[in-house]
Amino acid sequence: MKQTKLLMPTLREVPADAEVKSHQYLLKAGYIRPVSAGAFAYLPLAKRVLNKVEAIVREEMEAINANEMLVPEILPAELWQRSGRYQTYGQDLYKFKNRQDRDFILGPTHEETFTELIGGDIKSYKKLPLLVYQIQSKFRDEGRPRFGLLRTREFLMKDAYSFTADQEGLDSIFDQMEDAYRRIFDRIGLDYRVIVGDAGAMGGSDSKEFSAPAAAGEDTIVYSEGSDYAANLEMAQDFYERVDRSSEAQEAMTTIDTPNVKTIEALSALLDRPASELVKTIVLAGPEGQLIAVVTTGDFDVNTVKVQNFLGLSEVDLADETVVKEKLGASFGSLGPVALPEDIQLLVDERAADLVNFAAGANEDGKHHLNVNWGRDVALEEDQVGDFRTVKEGEMAVDGKGKLAFTKGIEIGHIFKLGTKYSAALGAQVLDQNGRAVDMIMGCYGIGLSRLLAAVSEQKADEKGLVWPAAIAPYDVHIVPINLKDDDQAAVVADLEKAVAEAHFDSLVDDRKERAGVKFADADLIGLPIRITVGKKAGEGIVEVVLRESGESFEMQASEVVDHLADWLQK
To answer: What's the pTM value of the predicted model, to 2 decimals?
Structure first.
């Protein structure tokens, strides 16, 4: 490809709203352009990267017998109403009506669609297991699209769905898909971690996320410094062994005035007791407005995702303070577990459940109880106790092997065991080997393909520009002549371009009438793996080779370049 024929509108100045490295460079190098907030056009260089990413994905999906297909982006709302997600998915759902006044949505994901299709055609367990996938745009009305391709309203995704007749079939495909994802990300050249994830709005049970560590990541990865344990912050667990303190003497509960004491820090200072010996009570609200009081030790925060999963709710949020005060008679900062109304569900973190003679809010503004004890002052059953805390750095990992550390990460893939959540709701059944109708057991597997461009850019780019791994670079070789009017240079360029093509590699030839410094700067900016400079030694058949990632440079005979391309691209 001649550079004069390529749509590659580079920028000298980065737009002010481009906050992260990937957004800045992908704009500056002419890979993407915004069309509206959170929606981007993929210009030729970006499209070539996406094509190579898609080819890798297709090869690995084919290797595990996945069937590629394509379903509509416009979906009837009725499908989502039957699954219940039309009401619960939230404001991210694009909803509209057609001219017949029927309700439709733009697909943010396609569990319902594939379940309806497969359920309509597959009626016997003998046709299972089945694995299908597509590569398609998805739509989510993000409240605040930001960071370029990292948080958008339209994005390209590979989504796959498995259908099996039994749990063993699901487990097998889940494991195969995890291995396939590892191969995909290894081939692309990403640094990533496989972590315990939250199924969230997808539903289901087991969930694993593939996260690429990067400063621009919006997710927090929690990992052990001494083992391979890793999870996102919402799901991470620390190591804790329950302590039997039933034999310890219980002091008489008293109430003290604590004016202006609304934080654990202030209460700890007032009582001269560590936060770990105090409790905090946070009131959450479920989807139907039900209130849940969650108690943790003062040195930990309540983890709403763990509470949500423990109760099997679609969502939980911090309750409205006005509602809480009307119900309990106190504001945030003075709440506690003693004498809670019966219609407020009590959950207690295991660390807090092991305390004796602890301090807690008295459900009266400006007052706290001292020497509160479970059983005597607050009824507590074991099924109300669990892990409801957000872990902290430095705590022992749940496997007991090393301390927990935090890093930022970009979610690039996610796999879920859905079970029968969608098949039961939509009537997708097969006859089993005993002739009984059973719900198909499902899995869901996604990769954010357009987000991969940002993830790779965040991890690989340097101060000069983008640095593409060879497997997904838009072109393998950048041939940069200093002066094409020079007959020797023109001849070497023509020979190189032909030899590269015959060796089945792609080349981009900078045939622009620009100064050498401009050409070199643009070459570094767009980030192709190999740059071959054809300059004043062209008459001797000598060129300069620069490897973009390592910065290594050397001179050699142009006729020998092609013999080394494969080795250089594997470095």
So the answer is: 0.88
